[in-house]
Design goal:
The complex is a heterodimer of chains A (about 550) and B (about 160). Chain A is of the alpha/beta class and about 550 residues long. Chain A is about 35% helix and about 15% strand. Chain A is built from 22 helices and 19 strands. In chain B, the strands form two sheets. In chain B, strands 5, 6, 7, 8 and 9 form a five-stranded antiparallel β-sheet that branches. Classes of the chains: A alpha/beta (about 550), B alpha+beta (about 160).
């Protein structure tokens, strides 16, 4: 049967098992929206801004492990997607971003709403396609989903000319994708694995250092087995939180700039670092010359270009984290590192995450502790800034895909739309959005679809009336010159939520924190927004200042 | 401090729209340099061959190799610097050649087994094929006569013998 390119696209999405397309309509994408109009299986989620649409698709992908799909029109629609595509790219999130493009005969002519989307997105996506004819659609979509979801996952951009959307051709979906130039290496080399195991067995002060790659590979079970079988302490990065339960005695919690002292000291004193699906990011390592100076490094990563990029590696293993860990687990045994464990436990006891109560102010950390107490099973979607670090520190994540945040690009405004995607992907879970006042207002318009769909999101704003993380740096490194961070002109977020049609609650006193959180639990016919007015100048500690070594962590201000 | 080395990469790519931009973007986005880049179809019209000459320390060269491999449209990458290979480059030189000096120039052409491919009233176009050293020698010798224009292909290179 001959179908239009747009209809072939939707049939192809159905073949890929796509439930939701997060999009915003526009001229050059109209045939696609038209094809979605009465399609029973692929549901259109109408977001209010293309950036929101891309983050929603991203949040869906992070929560479910499936490929998220976002759709926008040409020109400004497509450029608005770019932040979301870059966000997904930095965190290796499987996504297919479809953009309408002007008619092929107009391309390159500065046509209305024309933009070279392939050119603009090239450095921030895994791959991209331009569809200029309807008969290419099925093959391109099959390849796009294959590339987005295999190897090191990432966003794939499909730019779709309007005449190709209209043009009719025969629909035949490829049964198998075979790209001769793309064969990700998933099995780790057995000799390298044996070498790694030998190092593990001979180390005196080993640590495991796991990142988001473990979650992406669904390797959390295997990671747990490795840690527990060997008895080696483990630190999990911001992107990997939950891959190993933070409540476990071997857990040292997050490393890096605002990580636990224990994890940072352990890196510094270790003689073996086993990195699994982590990429030695600058926020984790601090000054590279002082990073784990006495440790041999084993690095397991699906992306060969990640290995040896920042830190010289003794045993590189290119492969899928789940498979490599499974192979290692067959070979490892318990290691005798009793003195090292004593040291680790001493650090843990001596330097837990802690804060001082200031007068009657609501301390942001207290709010997180209360959220954790009441919503410990929830999916938590964090935004970017101080609240993100406090959430990472004080909420104890125990499951993979329980903590979603923009760790790599650090995109403010990510969390509300991502929470929408997560809630749609996991309808039986409670989804908590921990947001900042600065980040919340960047994508506040996405409250509308959440309300329309009656999604029971718990939106908790840690409101300190500042771009708090920047203010903290200004306090510490710029003589308190608070340039461009004062948000005291914030609107009343509770009233604003009411005006949107959600439930808004403003909390200004400590004793109201818990009752408000409890009340929010009972609201399930739509989003609830709680605006927590917290201490304005609380800082995130511990802190490794930019450029310092992990051993030089500041535990707090004297 | 690691020392900088020149490397020649032979890269087979899908002959598709946008591939060159992806490769160029890989270099520009990371601040790596391309000394020369040559690209053309192979005997298979679906496949293009690129020869990329670049330089950097060992870590940068390793990154370039890995990132080239990571591009979806790249079929095969070989670092020819570490292999036994043949490299060639063509340069076209338009040099001032008044009738009374033409003889000297043609002698140089002959000695280097270069070719004269065009003769004008007071200029010659000379084509030279060879490795870097030979091209440099010819250009240096012709320089005193006055070079009007010069164009080079950039290196092309392939491995010797049968592939492993």
């Amino acid at each position: 049967m001959e179908l239009s390119g747009a209809k072939i696209l939707i049939e192809s999405l159905k073949q890929e098992g796509v439930e939701y397309v997060f999009g915003v309509n526009g001229g050059a994408a109209m045939p696609i929206f038209d094809a979605l109009y009465d399609h029973p299986d692929v549901k259109l989620i109408m977001m209010r801004h293309e950036q929101g649409a891309s983050h929603a698709a991203d949040g869906y992908a992070r929560a479910t492990g499936k490929v998220g799909v976002t759709l926008a029109t040409s020109g400004p629609g497509a450029t608005n997607l770019v932040t979301g595509i870059a966000t997904a790219y930095m965190d290796s999130i499987p996504m297919v971003a479809i953009t309408g493009q002007v008619f092929t005969h107009l391309m390159g002519n500065d046509a209305f709403q024309e933009c070279d989307v392939i050119g603009v997105t090239r450095p921030v996506c895994k791959h991209s396609y331009l569809i200029k004819s309807g008969d290419e659609v099925a093959d391109v979509i099959a390849e796009a989903f294959h590339i987005a979801s295999t190897g090191r996952p990432g966003p794939v951009v499909v730019d779709f000319a309007k005449d190709a959307q209209i043009h009719e051709s025969l629909f035949r979906y490829p049964e198998k994708v075979n790209i001769r130039s793309y064969k990700p290496k998933v099995e780790g080399h057995p000799r390298q694995i044996a070498k790694a195991v030998e190092l593990i067995h001979n180390a005196e002060r080993p640590i495991l250092y796991a990142g988001g790659g473990v979650t992406l590979a669904d390797g959390s079970e295997e990671l747990r087995e490795l840690a527990i079988k060997t008895g080696i302490p483990i630190t999990v990065t911001l992107m990997g939180l939950g891959a190993f339960p933070e409540t476990h005695p071997l857990a040292m919690e997050m490393p890096g700039m605002h990580g636990s002292c224990c994890a940072n000291y352990a890196f510094t004193d270790s003689d073996l670092v086993v990195a699994i699906g982590a990429r030695f990011d600058d926020r984790v390592t601090g000054d590279l010359t002082k990073f784990a100076p006495n440790a041999k490094k084993i690095h397991i990563d699906i992306d060969a270009s990640c290995i040896g990029k920042n830190v010289p590696v003794d045993v590189p293993i290119v492969g899928d984290a789940k498979r490599v860990l499974a192979e290692m687990n067959k070979l490892v045994h318990r290691v005798d590192i009793e003195p090292w464990m004593r040291q680790i436990n001493e650090w843990k006891e001596q330097y837990p995450f802690e804060y001082d109560q200031k007068g009657d102010n609501i301390m942001p950390q207290y709010v997180i502790e209360q959220i954790y107490d009441l919503y410990s099973d929830a999916i938590v979607v964090g935004d970017v800034g101080q609240h993100q670090m406090w959430a990472a520190q004080y909420f104890k994540f125990t499951e993979p895909r329980q903590w979603l945040n923009s760790g790599g690009l650090g995109t403010m405004g990510f969390s509300l739309p991502a929470a929408i995607g997560a809630q749609l992907g996991c309808p039986d879970k409670t989804v908590v959005n921990i947001n900042g006042d600065g980040s919340y207002i960047m994508t506040i318009q996405e409250l509308v679809p959440a309300i329309t769909m009656k999604l029971p999101l718990k939106i908790f704003i840690i409101n300190n009336m500042y771009l708090g993380m920047v203010r903290q740096w200004q306090e510490l490194f710029h003589q308190k010159r608070y340039a461009g961070v004062d948000y005291h002109d914030n609107p009343d977020f509770a009233q604003l939520a009411d005006a949107f049609g959600a439930t808004g609650i403003r909390v200004e006193r400590i004793e109201d924190v818990r009752p408000a959180l409890e009340k929010a639990k009972g609201i399930d016919d739509g989003p609830v927004v709680i605006d927590f007015i917290v201490d304005e100048e609380e800082n995130v500690f511990p802190m490794v200042p930019a450029g310092a070594g992990l051993g030089d962590v500041i535990r707090g201000l004297a | 401090m690691m020392t900088e080395e020149r490397h020649i990469f032979s890269v087979l790519v899908e002959n598709r729209f946008g591939v060159l931009a992806r490769i160029a973007g890989l270099f520009s986005g990371r601040g790596f340099n391309i000394d020369s880049l040559n690209v053309a179809e192979t005997d298979d019209p679906d496949v293009s061959h690129m020869t990329i000459v670049t330089h950097g320390d060992a870590q940068i060269i390793e990154q370039i190799y890995k990132h080239l491999n990571k591009l979806i449209d790249v079929i095969k990458v070989t670092d020819l610097t570490v292999e036994n290979h043949v490299e060639r480059e063509i340069v076209l030189i338009k040099v001032y050649a008044e009738p009374q000096r033409r003889g000297e120039i043609l002698q140089i052409v002959e000695i280097f087994r270069a070719h004269t491919v065009d003769v004008g009233p007071d200029s010659l176009i000379i084509e030279v094929t060879g490795d870097e050293g030979k091209l440099k020698a010819v250009v240096d010798l012709l320089h005193p006569y006055g070079i009007q224009e010069l164009a080079r292909t950039g290196k092309i290179a392939i491995m010797r013998g049968a592939p492993k």
